[in-house]
Amino acid sequence: MTHQYELMVILNPEIDERQVGANLDKFLKVITTDGGTIENIDIWGKRRLAYEIQKKTEGIYAVVNFTATAETTQELDRQLNLSEQIMRTKVLRAEEAIAMVASEKARADERAARKSTARRVEPVETKAAKA
Fold first, then answer.
1. Strand partners, 56
2. C-alpha angle 63-67-29 in degrees, rounded to nearest 5
3. Which of 73, 75, 87, 122 has the fewest Cβ atoms within 10 angstroms?
4. What is the pLDDT of residues 71-105, one digit of tens each?
5. How far apart are CA 91 and CA 48, in angstroms?
6. How are strands ordered across the β-sheet holding 56-69?
């Protein structure tokens, strides 16, 4: 049974950004040879990392949307983790990714609502203070 997945990859920043697509294609052949399809490859480019990974403060980000079986996805993740050029990977089923985004948005909306109500609360004057 095939599912839709989203793969986030952070590559070593020392790689030439023009070579990122070619480097990813080597790994993505696992998907196509097992009958999966690659819908979209979005290369974000070099970005600053939130924290150091392998003593590096930058990485080249890429997001790949694909359809494959669970076994194929596990093999892809295994091969990506073996490569020295790949600093981090995260594979999510598309349904899980959508649910995570929705829950984060709900939390952010809730925080914003709490902040706006906290600002609206004004101190109540007492009769003694008026006199």
1. 53
2. 75
3. 122
4. 999 999 999 999 889 999 999 887 776 777 777 88
5. 21
6. 37-53, 56-69, 2-11, 86-93
